[in-house]
Amino acid sequence: MKVIYDVKDNAFPDYDFPLRINRFDEYALEEALVIKDKFPDTVIDVVTFGYSNSVGLLKKALERGADSLTLIESQEELTPIVCAKLVYSHFKDRGYDIIFTGAMAEDFMSSSFGPALAGFFSFPFAVAAVSCELVNDKRFLVRCELEEGIAVTYSIKLPCLVTMQSGGREIRYPTLTGKLNARGKEAFVVKLDQKKDKSLSYEYKRKKAVKGILIEGSLDERCEYLYNELHKRGLL
Fold it and tell me: What residue segments make up the domains of the chain, in order of their start?
C-alpha cells in the first residue's frame, strides 16, 4: 500500500507568525497512519509547498510515522490549481493507492486543491471525510458527516483521493522511537524555477461567449420586440 499525504504550513513569510501544520492536514496524516498501523508495509510519503524553514516543522510528520518528506519550494504564492498540477507532475508515476489531503487550507480558506488533484490523477474522491476504513486492496469505505449530524458512508474504488476534516480521530503524539528515526531522514527539496517550469501556469479553456442583443426603444417597443423574439424561438 502506497499513500501520499499533502500538508500545508500556515504562516505568512513576511510576518513574524509561528509556523504550524494546517489542522485539517493533521487529521489527514492520522488517517494515513491508522492504515499503516493495520498494514505495516504501507509507505507514507508527505509532500508540501512552502519555504525552506518549513522543513523543521514538517519533520513532525516523520516523527509520527511517515516515511519520507518532499518540500516543493517556491518563493511565490501558488494557486491551488497550480499546486495540484505540480504534485501530479512530480508524483504521477509513483503508483499511489490513496491520496490524503486536508479538507481546507486554514489560511486562505481554500478547499479546491484536493478535488483538483483528483481530477489530474483521474481518481474517484470524497471530500470532508471524518474516518476511513480499508476493506481490501480494491475498496475503501469513507464516512462523511453532513449537516445536522447526518452521516453517509461511501464505498470508493482504489486508487482514490480523500480530503479529511477535523474531529474524526484523536491526533497521536510523536514517540521517542519516531523522533530518533526522523533524525536520520532528510527532506527531498524540489526548487521551482518560476521561468522554466511550465507547471506553474494553467490555462482554463473557456467556451465561446454567446453574443448578446441590446434591446432599444420605448418600453412598449422593447416589450413587443422581446415578445416576438421569445415567440419566434418557441419559448412562449
Answer: 2-200
**Residue found by looking up cell 483538483 in the block:** 116
135/214 Cα distance (integer angstroms) = 59
Q: Which CATH architecture has domain 2-200?
A: 3-Layer(aba) Sandwich (3.40)
pLDDT beyond 80 at 10: no
Alpha-helical segments (H) within the chain = 23-38, 54-64, 80-91, 113-121, 176-183, 219-232
Q: pTM here?
A: 0.76
Alpha-carbon Rg for the chain, nearest whole angstrom, is 23
Give the sign of the dihedral formed by CA 67, CA 183, CA 38, CA 113.
Answer: negative
Alpha-carbon distance of 24 to 110, in angstroms, equals: 12
Give SS3 for 142.
strand
Between the two ends of the chain, the Cα-to-Cα distance in Å is 60
